[in-house]
Amino acid sequence: MDPAAADVIAVVGTCAHERAAYASHFATRTDRTLHTAARVALSPDPVDEALALAPWSGDRGAVIEFPTATMPTAIIGAFAAPDAAARLTGLICVVDAMHLVDDLRREDYVLQSAPVGLVHRSRALVTAAQIEYATTVVLAGWEPLSTPELSTAMALLSALGPRARLRLHPAPVTAPEGPAPLTPVQDRPGWIAVLNDDHDPHMTDPRVRSMRYQAERPFHPGRLRRLLDGDLEGEAFGVVLRSAGFCRLATRPGATAHWEHVGSMFSLPPVGTDDELGDDDELLTAGVDIALIGLDIDVPALTRALDDACLSDAELAAGPSAWGAYADPFPAWSEAGA
Length: 338
Prior knowledge:
31% of the residues lie in helices and 26% in strands. By secondary structure, the chain is of the alpha/beta class. It folds into two domains: 6-189, Rossmann fold; 207-323, Hypothetical Protein Yjia, Chain: A,domain 2. Strand 7, helix 7 (147-160) and strand 8 form a beta-alpha-beta unit.
């Protein structure tokens, strides 16, 4: 990338008022040009519009506020392109302290303009992804929280995005923001750190728990669906706010799915089949490998429940010909996710 490329700080967040207020505050404090979400949203592709506007900021650099539904991976990928006219030196996610947990459990969708038209995205998933990929997470409106509530909120943010700096706004103490350039390949999300066994959040709290669940056997789809709709959704094991990873369903041998869950949103899209693997490719999982993050999680009880959702000894011995007869309540992979 051209070393003279414009310097950009992206500001994201699914709480529009708090995001806009902080973007304006940060631009003023750092003497950067502000491009608002309303401005970049005039284009069918707000990320492309941001790339086009950034060079006009000159040596001052830019703060670009993105619309609610913008996925951070799209921003990072576009600005990390070799021919990009601007470089992304920070991605700030602004969250509403009072409604953090509620925002991760929302069931509604937000609209995002794109070259192919309007795209519907789960608000909870966008909230989680923006936290996970941020270089800095700003907790706005935190003053009404009690000390234990603030501790839990900050520890939850740190569990979701363990590589992010945490800031309070309004800030009791002003802290400088150093550059944190983002590359196309990212391992910032907490769930990836859990799967890599290097999850080490800066902030901890007794209520915030994370765990890695691994099994060498695939899931029985019927029992998995009952677990998801029953005890897991009913919070019998605590509040699982975020889980992600990879798994296999017994009814779909030879294929690996991406487990994607935030709050009430769950999907299980395919990520590849065994016959697509090259000589140097690694198998994502032969059974199940998922990370789970939440509040008051009963790790032993949840582990037992997930074990029960996998194939038993007798079912495993019966083989794929028997597995094909199991009821499979999940949508076919040619359709929308579960």
